[in-house]
Amino acid sequence: MIRSAPILATLALLLPAAASAGPSVVADTPVTASLVAAVMGAQGQPQVLAGAGQDAHDLQLRPSQASALRRADLLVWVGPQMTGWLDRTADALGPDRVLTLLQVPGTRLRDRAEGGEHETGGDQDDHGHGHGHGHDHDHEGIDPHAWLDPDNAALWLDAIAEALVARDAPNAARYRANAAAARADLAALDARLQAQLAPVRGQRFVVAHDAYGYFTDHYGLAPALAVATIGAAAPGAARLTDLRRELAQADAACAFPETNHDPATLAMVVEGSGVVMGPPLDPEGSGIAPGPGLYGAVLAGLADALGACLQR
């Protein structure tokens, strides 16, 4: 099994560093920062706002972070559906200083309620810069965890490279070469994970909240039974009864708590069911060492956790 092996290890060797530093970049989450770091390479490192141990869905900016945002050449964020606390800041910075990943054309998006899928398109330019950053469409139902589909991440690497090129043309070749190397490493990792997860396709499992649809769709896994929906309060007694009924009908083998989420509710749902409790999942990479290897470690970590429990 893959043990969270960092991808993109050769990026720093692609080209010698230029004399000038790259643009000042701020990223919303560890995963976003990892993708940016892979593309920037030796030209600099992004500042991540929601760091280790913090819930990316709900964060209060420190004064130093707000100051860094005001000075930044570029904000790269998932979008208001994921990090809504950046919504006003993104508006204030304006589309020329913001890259919204969920708006990058061709991004595969899922609807939260029905699990449907569609692609981003329409009134964005080729790099995810729209008129504003999404208020001209109704995106309230979008599942924001789109990075868990590695096809989206591969697309975003190129968008990040072009956003950096627009702000640092002398280093254009470096950014594009780094993005190409990152995509190649990601494709190799994806192929390994496809093979690793093939034996557990069709097996049901339970998760703390509904963050894994992109991952299960991409790897052909059975949809996870989620204890809580995105942004919802802890389930009450009636909902717990319904969840236990759904759990029995699903014949789930394993349940997985999640980093930064209280496991108590999940434990109550599976109590007495015979379902095995697996290790915590970390879809946002909040417990993984930051850097260009974090994104690959997120995917590999999910595959390792699911495979180890579901193959018992």
Write a structural description.
The chain has 312 residues and is an alpha/beta fold. It is built from nine helices and eleven strands. Strands 2-1-3-4 form a four-stranded parallel beta sheet, covered by helices on one side. It has a four-stranded parallel beta sheet with strand order 9-8-10-11, sandwiched between helices. The chain is globular, with a radius of gyration of 19 Å. The two termini are 15 Å apart.
Q: How helix-rich are the residues, as a percent range?
A: 25-40%
Name the overall outline.
globular
Cα-based radius of gyration, to the nearest Å: 19 Å
Tally the helices.
9
End-to-end separation: 15 Å
What's the SSE pattern? EHEHEHEEEEHHEHEHEHEH
Q: How would you concisely characterize the structure shown here?
A:
With 312 residues, the chain is an alpha/beta fold. Helix content is 37%, strand content 11%.
